[in-house]
Amino acid sequence: MTQSTPQPNRALYAAHAYLPDGWRRNVLLEWDANGTLTTVAPDTDTATVAAGVQHAAGPVLPGMPNLHSHAFQRAMAGLTEYRANATDNFWSWRDLMYRFAARITPEGLASVAQWLYIEMLKAGYTSVCEFHYVHHTPDGGRYANQAELAQRVVDAASASGIGMTMLPVLYQYSGFGSRAPREDQQRFINTPDSLLALLATLRAARAENGGLRYGVAPHSLRAVSADSLQALLGGIEADAPVHIHIAEQTAEVDACIETEGVRPVQWLLDRFEVDSRWCLVHATHVDASETQALASSGAVAGLCLTTEANLGDGIFPAQEYLDAQGRIGIGSDSHIGVDWRAELRLLEYGQRLTRRQRNVLASPHATHVADRLFDAALDGGARATGRAVGALQPGRRADWLVLDANHSSIAEHQSDAWLSGVVFCEHGETPIRDVYTGGEKVVDNRRHRDEEGAYARYRVALAQLLK
Ligand code: NGQ
Ligand code: ZN
Question: Residue 30 belongs to what H/E stretch?
Fold first, then answer.
């Protein structure tokens, strides 16, 4: 299709764009008033492009979905990097995180989330799945609007322009065997019914649209029972996304084996119809048979490499899983870093360091590691969002990044090395220049449209939290 466009403000012409079949030249992108791509036409003759159509400032990549976020934790990044006791670990970090969660207010959460989503957009994340579990007042009481905190997060996303999958979390117990919740978990606690009621309230106030989808998240096998998980799934649409923390720490694997007689991923696969609507976050500790079974299920393994490194979780068997055609996506989780390039780099580097090899996650079909991981994280991440994102294709959301072709990570390189430069090189400022979501340019030359005000509000919220 090489025709002029009647809507110059809903069209972009790119000398290079990364389409599902790789880098293509002279690509005309057009989208509709809802922000959905209608035309993706490579090899469009420049002469046929209508006057007034913008030309992209550099090569265009699809925007990356971020499949796992706890927005409030952005405000504690960098504040737990000291040894507080002889055996500092994930669980002692969690105690500190709970103390922080206890201090969050609705206004503070709104400011932190909005700044975080702006940071995500600037880094090239165009969608986020928010695994939202701080629901109630600090003593476990209900806000007048029971969905107050979730609504603040949804509003922060829409103000920033990032696409959102809101996943209200069911947190019911404190450990395997339906143990009673702890005092410092009261803000999180619901039954399946009360969580579904909260979700209904939220949906009534903020309806789904091209930039917003709802799903649910049972927090972990520690926090729900088989019965409550069943009840939760019975209360939502059959295709709504379902995310769960599954096997991050060896202690939870051990506790699962002790009480249930089987490892966590196996437990879930045995009891539920786990398919492509599922995202298993931190499927870190899987044995060989779970690795194969998870890959065959079609579920997405949600990998959060910088957080998993930060918390001392362990290393996921990525090579075996990818070779079994398993789906992956990436998340920034605790937001110790907000950069998909770093997530993909660390995914490969964990393998290199443990195997003492190079280019471990390449495949015979994708010899460039960065290309294989970028494609995999786009596809799996898009599935995890439950939204039509993750590719420059008609029918998908008009979400993309424009690279700076003069950046030292890619300048003078052939296009087949661009993704390698973007993912593996760390040379100064980001090579991501502009970012579009739903066809709107929300980041222009590395600046988000609301950056100054949002950062000022974030600092006020942070000062309040740290007082
Ligand atoms: C969370 N975060 O829910 O924020 C968890 C820690 C838990 C990560 N796992 C709490 N990274 O798993 O109990
Ligand atoms: Zn998490």
Answer: strand 22-31
Give the residue from 190, 236, 234 showing the smallest Cα distance to 216: 236
CA-to-CA distance for 109 and 101, rounded, in angstroms?
10
Q: Which residue has the tokens 């201090």?
A: 103
Q: Are 435 and 124 in contact (CB under 8 A)?
A: yes
How many angstroms does the Cα of residue 57 sit away from the middle of ligand 1? 40
Model pTM score: 0.98
The torsion of the CA quartet 137, 142, 146, 152, rounded to 10 degrees, works out to: -10
What is the tens place of the pLDDT at every residue in 140-173?
Answer: 999 999 999 999 999 999 999 999 999 999 999 9
**Encoded tokens for 169:** 């979390």
pLDDT digits (tens, 9 = 90+) for 180-198: 999 999 999 999 999 999 9
- Contact yes or no for 317/355 (Cβ under 8 A): no
Ligand 1 centre distance from Cα of residue 245 (Å)? 8
What gap in Å lies between CA 84 and CA 22, rounded to an integer?
49
CA dist., res. 90 & res. 171, Å (int): 19
How far is the C-alpha of 135 from the C-alpha of 361, rounded, in Å? 39
* Distance from the first to the final alpha carbon of the chain: 60
CA distances from 240 to 112, 215, 464 (A): 27, 5, 36
Domains plus CATH for the chain? 11-62+393-452 (2.30.40.10), 64-385 (3.20.20.140)
Q: How far is the CA of 371 from the centre of ligand 1 (A)?
A: 30
Query: Ligand 1 pocket: which of 245, 248, 252, 305 to mutate (most atoms <8 Å of CB)?
Result: 245
Alpha-carbon gap, residue 420 to 429, rounded angstroms: 16
Angstrom distance (rounded) from CA 194 to CA 42: 50
Structure tokens at 412: 């003078």
Helix or strand run (H / E) with residue 54: strand 54-55
